[in-house]
Write a structure and sequence with these properties.
3% helix, globular, 5-stranded antiparallel sheet, 427 residues, 1 helix, single chain
């Protein structure tokens, strides 16, 4: 059974232990100002994975000035995995994945106490909140849950659902399934406005641009054996009709698996990485494309060939990319580097042993979680220069990007199939 906050004495003891392990620079310098690219305000509040409908990792608030304490944690005793949370109006929402079904949780951000939870089908996604309605996907399709009544308004069924985070704009919900289809659904009625098929396997989380929807789609091989290559492409469709506008595939046709990961839009450009990794087999480039034409503007990859690209974020004229390498003893080393969005040239690099999560940005500071050998560190870097401003350490493994809400950071702590998992609130 999922528990809310521990008893007061246990909580105080836990916080003391965490604070003793903190590593804080209390005399950090003022960060260098950075040009911002805050997404335009929508007509209704929206909370979505990666901070905005463009999926850039940019949050429209000042961020936390301290990083001095874990002031609550929420334990999920029987969840094998916890999705990235979203936050809106004092409530944190996320899914706890377990057997045979999952649960959608709503947590009071002031206290870390459970407000309510709702059972869902196994492998439900990070939800998206718009105008008081939570939209999430699972293996059965797309669901709309009224947060005031906790009753399902409607559901849109698909035969092969997938736990991808939906996007919402102008009363349309966009989501992809596990058979290469991207759907546009009326947010009020649950009726289909359009559907487009681009492959026969997964589609990524969609990112919104100027009247366009961007996403990656996968074509799984229809044969087996040495010639069974997978083709992964990037797509742009019209948000009103679903009409396909352009397609982009990696230029290196000899790749066994062309896999795009982390698709986002910023200032009319689309960014993605063709991750190499242990499974993906891509060319290990980060790509910048013109959002209107799909034309490649530039591509960049680390000079150190051992580093595999992992995640991206963007703000103003800088694109942030994480990368990781492992030696023969399975020791890992991580980098995050900033690339000029106009030229594709590297501006700065920050390194650490271990692994980084996807970066998040607020108030000119880049926040990134890091773990190495059971120790987690949250770094706050000057987004313009990459210089460390402050950091905070604690004993755990971090599995999600940092979600920024004013002066508080929220993150998932734990590991796949390692119980319990936690949500931490840090300020």
């Amino acid at each position: 059974m999922t528990k809310s906050n521990p008893a007061a004495i246990s909580l105080i003891t836990a916080l003391v232990l965490v604070l003793l392990s903190g590593c804080i620079d209390e005399s950090f310098p003022t960060p260098t100002p950075i040009p911002t690219s805050i997404p335009a305000k929508l007509s209704t509040p929206i909370a979505i994975d990666r901070g905005n409908v463009h999926r850039t990792g940019l949050y429209d608030n000042a961020g936390t000035p301290q990083l001095t304490e874990v002031f609550w944690r929420y334990s999920l005793e029987d969840a094998a995995y916890v999705t990235v949370p979203i936050v809106e109006d004092g409530v944190l929402y996320f899914s706890g994945i377990k057997e045979p079904n999952s649960e959608l949780h709503a947590i009071d951000t002031r206290t870390g106490r459970l407000l309510w939870k709702q059972e869902t089908v196994r492998y439900s996604s990070t939800p998206t909140l718009s105008d008081g309605v939570l939209y999430y996907t699972d293996q059965t399709g797309l669901h709309a849950l009224d947060t005031s009544t906790r009753k399902e308004k409607w559901n849109y069924a698909v035969r092969h659902g997938f736990d991808m985070s939906p996007a919402v704009q102008h009363e349309v919900v966009y989501f992809g399934d596990d058979r290469g289809n991207m759907h546009g659904i009326d947010s009020q009625t649950g009726e289909q406005k359009w559907s487009v098929k681009v492959g026969n396997s997964y589609t990524s989380d969609p990112a919104l641009g100027d009247a366009k929807l961007y996403f990656a789609g996968d074509i799984a091989p229809l044969i087996t054996g040495p010639d069974a290559h997978r083709q992964n492409s990037l797509y742009a469709v019209d948000i009103q009709t679903g009409r396909q506008l352009w397609t982009f595939a990696p230029p290196d046709s000899e790749l066994e698996y062309k896999f795009f990961y982390d698709v986002m839009e910023a200032n009319g450009k689309v960014y993605t990485i063709n991750s190499r990794g242990d499974f993906y087999g891509g060319d290990n480039y980060v790509y910048a494309l013109d959002g209107t034409s799909g034309k490649q503007l530039w591509r960049y990859r680390p000079q150190q060939s051992a580093y595999n690209l992992a995640h991206i974020a963007a703000n103003g004229d800088l694109l942030y990319v994480t990368a990781e390498s492992r030696d023969n003893d399975n020791n890992s080393k991580a980098q995050i580097f900033a690339v000029d969005t106009a030229t594709g040239q590297k501006r700065w690099t920050f390194e650490a042993d271990g692994s980084f999560t996807a970066p998040s940005i607020a108030g000119g500071i880049l926040y990134i979680a890091h773990h190495d050998k059971g120790i987690a560190t949250i770094y706050a870097l000057d987004a313009r220069t990459g210089k460390e401003q402050r950091s905070f350490k604690f004993d755990h493994m971090v599995t999600s990007p940092l979600v920024i809400d004013g002066d508080v950071l929220y993150l998932v702590v734990g590991n796949w199939n390692a119980r319990p998992n936690y949500i931490f609130a840090i300020r």
